[in-house]
């Protein structure tokens, strides 16, 4: 179980840290209007709560579906409570990121600074909610279609990916297919600014997708929810992230 959970940890961060910084074919003006609504929707909140559904696929085949509740608190804290098909916990307390699998009696700990190295879009929700801090460019998605007629899907060109391309002397192209690196998409309710879905396409056909519903702004949540205290008898393992990640500073 722990191995399965850690397998999805890079994807979870890539999503999660698009959300701790948070934030058809619309025109440029519509795109900017939607981004402005997205930022305004969440910027004033100290704490956010949402129900999420996570789906992991490879080459179009669904390998795992999980669901639970996510909490985000400024500055830089979040908690993902996985409730089905089994209980797991992913928590960032501002100093460390924790991955707890109760069935295995094991928790993996990673320094929070390393956990933000994933150049991700979901860091927006626990940060200052400025999309431009994560996305070097944001534009209408070409092939990804919205799940509802009043939603808009936008492609985010990650800043770290854009910088790496320039270092290597490569042309900075949108690369919306994911063949040249992570392709990140936001699905947003056009008129309310609600974040509905985050989709990340990885090279090789892997995709992770997060659906969000039941957003709550500043719910009555105690700060202790964002601190992890290992239960008695649980082994703590100091984890290591895959190499090659570039840090995104809040």
Features:
5 helices; globular; alpha+beta; 12 strands; 38% strand; 250 residues; outer membrane lipoprotein receptor (LolB), chain A
Rg result: 17 Å
Task: Give the amount of beta strand, in percent.
Answer: 35-45%
CATH architecture annotation = Clam
Low-confidence stretches: 23-27, 116-120, 162-171, 241-250
- One letter per element, helices H and strands E, the order comes to HHHEEEEEEHEEHEEEE
What distance separates the N and C termini? Answer: 32 Å
What's the pLDDT, averaged over the residues? 78
**Count the helices. How many?**
5
Q: Strand arrangement, largest sheet?
A: 7-8-9-10-11-1-2-3-4-5-6-12
Total domain count: 1
Which assembly state applies to the chains in this document? Answer: single chain
What would CATH call the homologous superfamily?
A: Lipoprotein localisation LolA/LolB/LppX
Q: What name does CATH use for the topology?
A: outer membrane lipoprotein receptor (LolB), chain A
Q: Largest beta sheet, briefly?
A: 12 strands, mixed
Number of strands: 12
> In the CATH hierarchy, what is the class?
Mainly Beta
Estimated structural class:
alpha+beta
């Amino acid at each position: 179980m722990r191995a399965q959970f850690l397998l999805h940890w890079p994807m979870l961060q890539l999503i999660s840290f698009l959300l701790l910084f948070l934030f058809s074919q619309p025109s440029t003006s519509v795109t900017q209007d939607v981004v402005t609504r997205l930022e305004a929707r969440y910027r004033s909140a100290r704490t956010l709560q949402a129900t999420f559904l996570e789906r992991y696929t490879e080459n179009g085949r669904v390998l795992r579906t999980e669901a639970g509740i996510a909490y985000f608190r400024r500055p830089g804290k979040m908690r993902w409570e996985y409730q089905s098909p089994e209980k797991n916990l992913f928590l960032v307390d501002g100093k460390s990121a924790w991955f707890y699998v109760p069935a295995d009696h094991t928790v993996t700990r990673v320094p929070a600074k390393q956990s933000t190295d994933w150049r991700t879009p979901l860091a927006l929700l626990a940060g200052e909610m400025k999309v431009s801090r994560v996305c070097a460019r944001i534009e209408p998605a070409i092939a990804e279609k919205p799940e509802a007629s009043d939603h808009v899907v936008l492609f985010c060109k990650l800043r770290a990916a854009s910088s790496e391309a320039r270092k290597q002397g490569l042309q900075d192209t949108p690369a919306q297919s994911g063949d040249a690196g992570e392709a990140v998409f936001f699905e947003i309710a056009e008129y309310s600014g609600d974040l509905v879905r985050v989709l990340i396409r990885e090279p090789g056909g892997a995709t992770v997708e997060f659906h969000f519903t039941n957003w709550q702004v500043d719910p009555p949540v105690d700060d202790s929810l964002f601190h992890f205290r290992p239960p008695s008898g649980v082994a703590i393992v100091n984890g290591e992230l895959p190499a090659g990640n570039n840090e995104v500073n809040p």
